[in-house]
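Protein data:
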Amino acid sequence: MDILNNQDKINWKPYERVLFRFFFIYFILQAVPLDWKYYVRLFQLNWFNLQFQDIFNISRYTPQLLETERSIDFWGIHTFGDWGILTAIALLGGLIWSLFKKKQDNYVGLYYVLRVILRYRLAIGVIAYGFIKLFPLQSPYPSLSDLNTNYGDLSAWRLFSLSLGVAPSFEYFLGAVEIFAGLLLFYRKTVFIGSFIILCFTGNVFLSNLAYEGGETVYSLYLIQFALFLLCYDAPRLFRLLSLERPTYPSIYRPVYPKVWQAKAQLILKSVFILFFVVLYGFKTYAAYQKGPYHYPEQQDADLAGFYDVSRFVFNGTSLPYNRTDSIRWENVVIERWPTLSIKTGKQAQPVISNVELIHPLSEARNFEYAGTVGRHYYRYQLDTMAKTFVMNSLGNNNEQESYKLTFDRHNDRTILLHGTTGKGDSLTITLNKIEKKYLLEEAGKVGRRSRLVL
């Protein structure tokens, strides 16, 4: 638009006014919380004990018009179908607006208001993701089960997440970039720089989601469109100045507050906004980081953690030898530092797709550890050392909902004997031998990646 080059220009061209009416309605529908379902979720929050995931969810708002199978887990849409509906509404609204408002010379004031709304919406969107990277929560360090899963048994998105998780310093850097860019949007003079950084950064996120089959494709593009629109305000002036080397007018528009209290109210609202979405959210995220990754159960039990070879496996009185194609016999077992156990058998697990950022407050709802992998079967276990009982219940990646009720006998620090029945009544006798296994990733970290490594 030519009007972008000179804010003193009184009259906009007809096509500029038409385009603005469309974009104004479209972006208001996209950025301003108008979806009643969003407010239902807001009222369900415990505002006296907000957690970091509550603020994270608030920041992820997008209007949800079409119900999907994943709608219950989200605070916003994740389909392009909703965008089509919003575009149609904006086209219709822009047409009606043009029919009944033909004498308006310009929309400089509304244009300023729209930019402010998009600046703050984009800022909280990138800052929300920035903090869960700055305190490396989004992509945690691989679990023992991950380290004992074949590369080909992991989905593309799982591999991407694990690759980021093994490089926490890089994750810190990514988070710092997002937070820095988001903070720049709170100040009018640095909006162009912040928008440009976000466009480059989130553009890479968008391409990564396409390449690695991620689930944040729509949301990343959602943020990109805001950054592009904000860039359009200063881009023509910069092009005129730097490329054409012509005189360029600066942006001199300022909102006028007739009364003093209005200016003070604007400052207070901005301060509260930053305190809530930056200071409070940052503090809450750091507190969550101190407790450990939110992807894994909170309860810790490192006493049994390790890799176990199944040296003996008796099924219904018959001893089964090692057989990598046997769907019944266990090949090896991994016990995590939390009450999760994974088993390697000859039967492939049921794939579970979880390639979006969901923060479950309850441990039993967290599925990250078995999502995107088919190489191992995962179970949640309960150990009663007094009664010597070991109960295992299958998690979501098993083909069948299985359970085991076993007696637990620990002969020594390295040998565990399990005996009991499956949920179907089949008898089992299993001997587990712990193996002090070395992992290339951890050993390389100890001696340095340029040193000689012996496993």
Q: What stands out?
A: The mean pLDDT is 88. Residues 2-291 form one domain. The radius of gyration is 28 Å. The longest strand covers residues 306-315.
